[in-house]
Amino acid sequence: MTAVAIIGGSGLTNLKNLRITRREVIRTPHGEPSAPMVFGQLGGQEAVFLPRHGPGHTIPPHEVNYRANIWAIKLTGVSKVIAVNAVGGISPGYLAAGTLVIPDQVIDYTYGRAHTFFGSEQKKVTHIDFTHPYCEDLRQTIIQAGERAKISVVGRGTYGATQGPRFESAAEIRRMERDGSDIVGMTGMPEAGLARELGLCYASLALVVNPAAGKTKDIISIKDIETNLETGMASVRSLLEQVIPLIVYD
Ligand code: HPA
After folding, report:
1. pLDDT at 17
2. 212 close to ligand 1 (CB < 6 Angstrom)
3. Among the listed residues 57, 76, 71, 62, the one whose alpha carbon sits nearest the alpha carbon of residue 8
4. From ligand 1's centre to the CA of 76, what distance in Å?
5. Kind of pairing, strands 45-51 and 37-42?
6. Which of 120, 136, 154, 160 could form a disulfide with 176 if both were Cys (CB 3.0 to 4.6 A apart)?
7. Residues of the chain with pLDDT under 50
8. What pLDDT is attached to residue 33?
9. Can you give the pLDDT at residue 11?
10. According to the model, what pLDDT value does residue 250 have?
């Protein structure tokens, strides 16, 4: 049985160190997931991989079918999900490109995305607890893997999820900072909420690829982001390889 799913973000459309065993197209009542599920071995354990933006990185953050992705992951039978997210850094301590953050909180600034499985087609109104939006056990496992592998990881932080695909204005980032956001990305929600609705243990592994808008005197450079994605995803891949063997089946 497969214990864990990895959702790859920008810069991680394939997991080079995954020894692929098979691919499976999964259909869901919510439409097509971003790609066929890729099953394989990573760090000596079975894992399944899904590139959030599609195999060729063609699906923008606001058009990802988050419901289909999470539903399809649930259908594979895994109970744990590690989501990889590229982010901008807002707070001091989260600004340097290459910083790995395991967020413990989220603020949702997205709009108009299909964000729930619990609409009016449900027989009765359903609410879920989201006090602690990320799975604490899995967060701790990732932090522990970082310590063992001597890969530096920031073990907490608030992820502010914005709509995209444009980056934010400097004033939007100032507002997010006042709200308590430490990092900013476009894909953290509704993914985390949907995972909670289906009872999946979900954590995010966020890679800082740029200082957020207005945090330096320069404007955001796409070229720098691309370079930082490439270097940073190498650490993400090796951290994932360390995390997988520590994950226990349940
Ligand atoms: N803002 C939003 N999403 C992002 C950023 C950013 O600065 N960097 C990477 N993803």
Report:
1. 87
2. yes
3. 57
4. 30
5. antiparallel
6. 160
7. none
8. 98
9. 79
10. 67
Ligand 1 pocket, residue 97 CB under 6 Å: no
Q: Which atom of ligand 1 is nearest to the CA of 186?
A: 3
CATH code at position 83: 3.40.50.1580
pLDDT at 32: 96
Residues 46, 168: contact at Cβ < 8 Å?
no
Cβ count near 27 (within 10 Å): 12
Name the β-bridge partners of 106.
159
pTM value is 0.97
Beta carbon of 81 within 6 Å of any ligand 1 atom? no
Q: Which atom of ligand 1 is nearest to the CA of 162?
A: 2
**Can you give the pLDDT at residue 10?**
87
Residues 6+ apart with CB under 8 A from 196: 128, 129, 130, 133, 202
Q: With a 6 A CB cut-off, is 183 part of the ligand 1 pocket?
A: no
Q: Indicate which residue's Cα is closest to atom 10 of ligand 1.
A: 87
Number of domains in the chain: 1
Q: In 3D, which of 205, 250, 229, 236 has the Cα closest to residue 17?
A: 236
Q: How far is the CA of 73 from the centre of ligand 1 (A)?
A: 25
> What is the C-alpha separation between 243 and 144, in angstroms, rounded?
8
| Segment (H or E) for 82 | strand 80-89
The answer to whether the CB of 5 falls within 8 A of the CB of 40 is no
Buried b (16+ CB within 10 A) or exposed e, 189-208: bbbbbbbbbbebbbbbbbbb
Distance 101 CA to ligand 1 centre (A): 14
- Domain membership of residue 22 as a residue range: 4-118+125-246
Cβ–ligand 1 distance for 185 under 6 Å, the answer yes
